[in-house]
Amino acid sequence: MSHFLDRLKFMSRVVSTFSEGHGEVVNEDRQWENAYRSRWQHDKVVRSTHGVNCTGSCSWKIYVKNGLITWETQQTDYPRTRPDLPNHEPRGCPRGASYSWYVYSAQRVKYPMMRGRLMKMWREARKTMDPISAWESISQDPAKARHYKSVRGLGGFVRADWDTSMEIIAAANAYTIGKFGPDRVIGFSPIPAMSMVSYAAGSRYLSLIGGVCLSFYDWYCDLPPASPQVWGEQTDVAESADWYNSTYLMVWGSNVPQTRTPDAHFYTEVRYKGTKTVAVSSDFGEMVKFGDIWLAPKQGTDAALAMAMGHVILKEFHLSGKSDYFRDYARQYTDMPLLVMLKERDGKLVPDHFLRASNLDNALGQDNNPEWKTLLIDELTGELVVPNGSIGLRWGEESAESGGKAGRWNLELKDAANGQAIVPRLSLANAYDAVADVAFPYFGGEHDDVLLRRVPVRKLSLADGATALVATVYDLQMANYGVDAGLGGPNVAADYDDDVPYTPAWQEKHTTVPRERVIQVAREFAQNAHDTHGKSMVIVGAGLNHWYHMDMAYRGIINMLVMCGCVGQSGGGWAHYVGQEKLRPQTGWAPLAFGLDWSRPPRQMNGTSFFYAHSNQWRHEQLAVNEVLAPTGNHASYEKLSLIDLNAKSERMGWLPSAPQLETNPLDIVAQAEAQGVDPITYTVDGLKSGKLNMSCDDPDNPANFPRNLFVWRSNLLGSSGKGHEYLLKYLLGTQNAVFSDENDAIKPSEVRFRKEAGEGKLDLLTVLDFRMSTTCLYGDIVLPTATWYEKDDLNTSDMHPFIHPLSEAVQPLWESKTDWEIYKLLAQKFSEIGGPHLGVRKDIVLTPLMHDTPGELGQPFEPKDWKHGECELIPGKTAPSMTVVQRDYRDIYRKFTSVGPLLDKLGNGGKGINWNTEHEVKELGGINKRVLEPGVSQGRPRLDTAIDAAEMILTFAPETNGHVSLKAWRALSKITGRDHDHLALGREHDKIRFRDIQAQPRKIISSPTWSGVESEEVSYNAGYTNVHELIPWRTLTGRQQFYQDHRWMLDFGEGFCVYKPAVDTKTVKPMLNRYSNGEHELVLNWITPHQKWGIHSTYSDNLRMLTLSRGGPHVWISETEAKQAGLVDNDWVEVFNINGVVTARLVVSQRVPVGMCLMYHAQEKIVNVPGAQTSGKRGGIHNSVTRAVLKPTHMIGGYAQQAYGFNYYGTVGSNRDEFVVLRKMTKIDWLEGPLEQEATNEGAVK
């Protein structure tokens, strides 16, 4: 019956009553009940996940009915854990449960979109020109270029078609390669682990054409530099299930319940079995509620807190000899017994380099790499010995089969010269020749900046006849912490109440944490580790790692763990969680992602240095090098140098990569060399020495050195991660911005050229791929619609659990969207059509830094010398970047993109310094994916037509997903260590994980030597486990965990040992105070940007469900005290600004925020509910609008064992928490809804 008739008969619907009138029988229509009856009647349920850079990596059920995605619920079929451990499920959070809203929302990018002005000019040009000429006519005409660049971010999109979009992008790429060089074509995409094939699609295309892939882990400031420094490992951590094995758990700057929601149950459950938990957080975060103790240090002082705890541990558990376990662990697994030379500087003795075999007569019989072999004293004989494990024993040692001595790169306590057992001496306290006053730098104020402390030393005769003083790291460490080791003297503490750096009393002045609490926690932490042999754990996160001196806070915490023998023990160690960094099948993925099956090496660039240079943030630098130099350092070496000078120095010495690499097109360089009959590498070396050729990094504002084309996919670069957001807008994009900083007030470089006119609008083309209209999309020139995570096939892993599982195509990509794989495949095809005839076959010279986990990391062993200053010869791969000539046939990009190349047959595969044969896997993949039948370079090769084909390549070649490969990889490592590791793979030798397997159920990965833990039913995954239990060295100079860092720059900047360094002064607030006064009180606050509750980075924050649950737009938090002081109340509109830019937001007033802090949960985009700012007259920005990247010189070090470059492994990082801002109430709310009145580049910025 119709609804209308139902309404008319409403009053007569009752047929009868019962229960004395309390019940009634009605005859109304009940069809509405069918909606509930059929709710769970679906056509299919498909397994997928969310590729959102979330460590949760949760598997979800996607429900499809009548061809439509209806909703999602959590999967609950993860492989079980052992009986004494909770299962990993349920996994998920409200953010993931809201994702299906995006699929059919107005936020969805449904069709290719293009900037209208660009489209109009393109159509006009194409009437008379071929695509490449058409692109040249637009991009190289200043007026035309300014016409479309100046309105980036201001709307004006029109719908385009796929063919036109691909034609423009391909033409732009081909023109740029021919005119400027392939290294001017750049790509940025983060975190491959969240959708491996989607990342690989873009990076494979870029690598095949010779383009550049930018790193992200460092740019996001998720990379903890302390991890490479101490362990030679990018980041390896315990899975979350191992929290349950801990018996003392500290959560330090990681808001586990809020940002690790799927894993938080392990944190709460472990408390029920008696584990004590300590929360360390400056604000009252969610994790504090679960802590037995809350320590609330002032933000940025965590290193001081950790150093004070270390002081207690050293004094009570090491110096007293209380723990034999700690002593034995220190002897075998740390650098504590190794000897360090002392050197006189400015009349004081300072720690210098580790003593090396090459320092002694006849190099102690070590003829291979004696400069890279460290020494200790054997207690049994009293003699100097080279112990097994140092990096000099890793490279260049011929195999035993060929008469060599390979097989000594292990942590067996043996003399490398003769294999005799040794007992390393930790301290010279009872066997010294003298007691020396050693100088240690101090940065905390209130005390002398050089602290003299007494250390027992030995005298040695060196090979050159000189006499040297040496001390053990153990004794120097005691002195550095201010522990009186019985030698007395100044600057050491007799009592914890002494105000001596690094006592509990001293830290109280810096952190405000009561000394009693510090002593209590340190004792409990160490006592528990002693009793349980290492089951004390610290969970850490971005709360600490986003400070400029983040490595000091991290090394302070790591020192505690290593002192207590926790690293490598189940239930113990360091657990750093940030983004979804763990790409478990990395060695199977890398050949696909970087085209290593067709050509090597690829071009890869450190993202932080790239954006710092090309968004001209260096032109606004306020931090001088001498402000961060140590009082004990060699200041003369850095005189007049700025941070950009040091970065350029690092690039030309091969420490960091560069992009673009050379001012001259690298294709032209090879052509010129061959035309003259000269070897291209010799030609390049001679050209650099003579000045005929120049590195691009020496002149970033030369148009020849501009990056020209930028791809952004799987990322919201301009709405989330872009430090110095306004500088990116001004210099890279050439559009409206709110940069208040004046270049004339900044520090000028002395070696990098400072041009009077800065380059603006450097990018000719910004191409963005996304499924939603993000902030980055708004600034794009071409926006391509990608499939959502429920419309594509892909792979996903995390460090939080040991499983690999898929993204799956529940429905086909909607509207005109395509998967990332299909988009880049289409582009490769169009590029081959357009760029192939234009470019043909060309030879390219590729510069590669001295890479970690290769022999190249044995660069300059002592004092670094710069070839440009005539201090040494320019030797590629030693004192300068490695150089390789790569032939590229631009006609075959599509054929190579869609097939597996022959280099895997010829050269095999590998990772992290080991290599194995893969001929069998290539043949096997040919059977799985079938082979190319079409004639051409790819004929007969395994196919890569679809995303599933690409996934099968990853799964086939990775030891983590193919048991046969795992066994080969362990055997390859055994040849270097001399130890049998087969048992780690034999149990799963015949396991082969395929894509359809993981669609049925997540699969646990297989143990691999490229990681430091094991997958086992006996222990949960824990980093460092194989180092401790299999005696595999850490990939460091010493082969051990290093308290001491002896590179010259580390020493000059005062970071040989861990110290406390306060936040740096970025000098961004004072010029803005009362500069644009609106009559309201101005507060100066520290700017803190933690991860939010209503989004994963920027995703979900514009989702209607999350907007409904949250405040519905950008908001910032301050304390009640300061709100009252400034006359502010909750929900007021405020603007937050400094010389970098301005943010507009609602105010949250809260008791949980301490005085002095302004907290803005990061990645709240400016596309929802953001008014104009009164200071700039433009719409408010994002959290990074008030930040600017500031580089740290010690992160530029390279070619030095563990301090060598690796993609996302080591390099400069994008810190932002030292920043201060001005906050005030807004008196006028302007939504800027009028028409565009001004086309602005720098003219639009507030002066």
TrEMBL record:
Bilayer topology reads: Peripheral membrane protein
Principal subcellular localisation of the protein: membrane
Which keywords does this Swiss-Prot/TrEMBL entry list? 4Fe-4S, Cell membrane, Electron transport, Iron, Iron-sulfur, Membrane, Metal-binding, Molybdenum, Nitrate assimilation, Oxidoreductase, Transport
- State a GO cellular component annotated for this protein: nitrate reductase complex
Looking at the record, the residues that make up the 4Fe-4S Mo/W bis-MGD-type domain are 43-107
Q: What's the cofactor?
A: Mo-bis(molybdopterin guanine dinucleotide); [4Fe-4S] cluster
Q: Name one GO biological process term.
A: cellular respiration
What is the top EC class of this enzyme, as a single word?
oxidoreductase
- InterPro entries per the UniProt record, alphabetical: Asp_de-COase-like_dom_sf (IPR009010), MopB_CT_Nitrate-R-NarG-like (IPR037943), MoPterin_dinucl-bd_dom (IPR006657), Mopterin_OxRdtase (IPR006656), Mopterin_OxRdtase_4Fe-4S_dom (IPR006963), MopterinOxRdtase_cofactor_BS (IPR027467), NarG (IPR006468), Nitr_red_alph_N (IPR028189)
Q: Where in the cell is it found?
A: Cell membrane
Q: Known SUPFAM superfamilies for this protein?
A: ADC-like, Formate dehydrogenase/DMSO reductase, domains 1-3
| Keyword Phosphoprotein appears in the UniProt entry | no
Transmembrane segment boundaries: none
Pfam families of this UniProt entry? Molybdopterin, Molydop_binding, Nitr_red_alph_N
GO molecular function annotation:
4 iron, 4 sulfur cluster binding; metal ion binding; molybdopterin cofactor binding; nitrate reductase (quinone) activity
Task: Identify the EC number(s).
Answer: 1.7.5.1
Write down the chemical reaction(s) this protein catalyses.
Answer: nitrate + a quinol = a quinone + nitrite + H2O
PANTHER family noted in UniProt: RESPIRATORY NITRATE REDUCTASE (PTHR43105), RESPIRATORY NITRATE REDUCTASE 2 ALPHA CHAIN (PTHR43105:SF2)
Family indicated by similarity: Belongs to the prokaryotic molybdopterin-containing oxidoreductase family.
Please give the name of this protein.
nitrate reductase (quinone)
Tell me the organism. Pollutimonas subterranea
